[in-house]
Amino acid sequence: MQGKTTRVIQEPANHCEFVKGRCDFQIAGKPARAEFITPVATEESVTVAFTLPSHISLQSVWIEGENMYMGQIPVLVENESENSWSGWFMLGSCSEPVMRWKMLVNIKGRTEPALLYFTTS
Predict the structure, then answer these.
(1) Organism's domain of life (predicted)?
(2) Which one in 35, 57, 92, 98 has a CA-CA gap of 20 to 30 Å to 41?
(3) Residue 1 resides in a domain
(4) Which residues face 47 on adjacent strands?
């Protein structure tokens, strides 16, 4: 009898859940933050600010629906200073009463994105 092979799916190290519009996480063991500057609402422009460790740069930021496919929504980010970035996005409305979203924060030189989660209702 042959043994079964089990595939283990591990949770990414860099992930967090937005609480009161703020999400604290780590990049390369150093603190980072994402914060909604405007309330998150569907079909409205939402602004988000990122504070990253020194010498760390954003490559791109995307948002995807977790409990319903909504495509990839780009977050249009600009560098404000050495460790500050600001971006905006718009979410489409959907039929789910509570929608769970995943923000993928891609960092230059790193293979795995930071995963930041939030909900809309």
Answers:
(1) Bacteria
(2) 57
(3) no
(4) 88
